[in-house]
Design goal:
two-stranded antiparallel sheet, two-stranded antiparallel ribbon, mainly beta, about 40% strand, globular, 4 strands, 1 helix
């Protein structure tokens, strides 16, 4: 389960389970991009090198 929290500055923080992050090859501090496909679908992609 992914958890969404609100920080003291009003920004939303998304917590991704360790197993999911490992399966996606995500590392601490890595940036990802989100895109809304429809009202129930959110797509997350790893950002490539600039």
């Amino acid at each position: 389960m992914v958890k969404i929290q609100e920080g003291s500055n009003g920004q939303r923080l998304v917590t991704i389970p360790r197993e999911l992050a490992k399966a996606m090859g995500l590392e601490k501090g890595e940036e990802v991009e989100f895109s809304v496909k429809d009202s129930k679908t959110l797509e997350m992609n790893k950002r490539g090198p600039e």
